[in-house]
Design goal:
Layout lengths: L5 E4 L5 E4 L18 H21 L6 H8 L3 H7 L3 H27 L4 H18 L3 H8 L4 E2 L4 E2 H16 L8 H19 L8 H16 L7
Antiparallel strand pairs: 1-2, 3-4
Length: 230
């Protein structure tokens, strides 16, 4: 039997395991991809707990010990899935990204053919819904989580969202004509996120003036790079 893993402090001040348990795959920062229902439920509980902590103290002060305490789990359980606090933030970003795209696809499926203005309306409405209901999102957001990376550290969350949203739009609207769809969607998403975030700074329900301005600015920007009408 090998020597037990040791605990040390990483450069962010967070306790991390060293030894064999420090290894992680290139594809994901998750130590163990959940396969069985119990494992998936445990991971969901850890992420829910992490989101609650992030909402309270912000991502900079998040530690794996806080996640364990909030989840009522051992620190070893947290390390079974996440090698450090950054991996926890990445896990939250990945989950939010997945939920966001699923919600968008459902909305696209329900609407049929869409104008650019309707596409922007759906994106802004989903950002507003996330600001109100998605744990951790108002603090992390897609464009502000500097440390969060997806696809094995290759892309930022924001660029991954824009790329996957572009692929989703191509499937639903194959005649979309843009100079650089992924980049232009990333710019539009960044503008929308900033304005939607501002809408919630002083109004817990979201100031409708900023929300409407997000629609106007993003629709105008995309219309300037597309042959489709707004």
């Amino acid at each position: 039997m090998g020597a037990p893993d040791k605990v040390t402090q990483d450069r962010r001040g967070d306790s991390v395991l060293i030894g064999d348990a420090r290894s992680s795959s290139a594809e994901s920062r998750l130590r163990n991809e959940p396969v069985q229902a119990r494992s998936a439920a445990r991971l969901s509980t850890l992420l829910d707990s992490a989101a609650a902590v992030v909402d309270e103290v912000g991502p900079e002060r998040l530690t794996t010990a806080m996640v364990a305490d909030r989840a009522g789990a051992s620190i070893g359980t947290v390390y079974r899935y996440f090698p450090d606090r950054v991996a926890v933030i990445e896990g939250l970003a990945n989950r939010a990204l997945s939920r966001f795209l699923i919600k968008l696809e459902q909305e696209f499926d329900d609407r049929g053919d869409l104008t650019l203005g309707q596409l922007v309306d759906i994106i802004v409405a989903t950002l507003v819904d996330f600001s109100r209901n998605e744990p951790g999102y108002r603090v992390l957001r897609f464009g502000d989580t500097v440390e969060a990376r997806v696809t094995g550290g290759v892309e930022t969350t924001e660029s991954a969202l824009a790329r996957q949203l572009g692929e989703l739009l191509r499937r639903h609207e194959p005649d979309l004509a843009f100079d650089d769809l992924a980049f232009q969607l990333q710019v539009a998403l960044a503008m929308c996120e900033v304005l939607v975030h501002r809408a919630f700074v002083s109004d817990p329900d979201g100031d409708p003036r900023f929300i409407e301005e997000a629609r106007t600015v993003a629709a105008g920007y995309l219309a300037g790079h597309s042959s489709r009408s707004v």
